[in-house]
Amino acid sequence: MHTPATPTPEYFALGRSFAALRFSFDDPRHKAVDTLRRLCATATAHALARGELLPPLPAPDRQPSPGEYPKAPVDPFELLRHEMGLPSLPTIYAELQEVIAAPGTSAGNVAHVISRDTGLTASLLRLVNSSFYSFPSQIETISRAVTLVGTAQLTTLAIGTTVMKLFSDIPDELVSMETFWRHSIATGILARNLARRAGEKDPERLFVAGLLHDVGLLMMYQAIPDKCRLVHSFVRDHGAILHSAEMNILGFDHAMLGGMMLRKWNLPYPLVNAVLRHHTPDKSEEHLEPTLVHIANNLAGALDGTAHGEPFIQPLNIIAWDATGLTSEDLEATALESETQINEACQAMLNA
To answer: Looking at the domain assignment, is residue 2 inside a domain?
Structure first.
């Protein structure tokens, strides 16, 4: 997701080695996994050519057994009850829901509510005018954006954009907020584009599900930073998958907490479910949202050549993958078509 650089053969060799390490727990014989590894190797080679450094990673030969994890259990319900733990959604969300539910609502009614928040208005207009939508002419007003994008779709984008602004005071050593949201935006765009290829009818919803898939991490970083440091240290030292380490050390993972948060905010069930189950998709699900976010998360991780986020990629759920009907060619095509969209969406939403 950066300006292309020209890697040397040595960088490509290092990229292949680093990608193999990051995908230590996946089956390289599967075509989709092989594609993800190749994309990761190429992204790593280009990162090296730009002068970026690779983090030191252990060379794990297995995931730790449950007895090897330190124990620091936390009650996730207690986190949500903590008076400073869970931010409230801005009143604009409730106002939008009320307007949408009212008989005879027009694009102008929705635009009036959004336009009262100048920051949200600016972010949405930047996004609508980026290659995320690729409209042939400039969209200058929210009412025009609502007409073109759709009331429900623009409201969904407004939800994601407002949640991005809720968290602060998170220790820098735990997470770079810019890196966090860049990964989240990438996951959202990749999920949306994969959803289109899988024939989903509402791909915009997948964008917001991907955008918010790791929001439980922010809650954890804000509420229990010391225990998060313990989890991160174990992941780095022992080569564990992050959500497995969270589950074994804390008793829950960030996907569970994120789903609980969105449920408490009364967000739509498909969005809640996609966040809740993005590490544990099930082919029996009525909808593909959790699986598509799961795949997009892995693809976004692969395209982050220097492993700024999770050091090790979670194994692809092959059963859930097969249920989508997607192919390894879809992964490559989605990565290619999404690159410019991701860069421009990051500029639009992060004011970069």
So the answer is: no
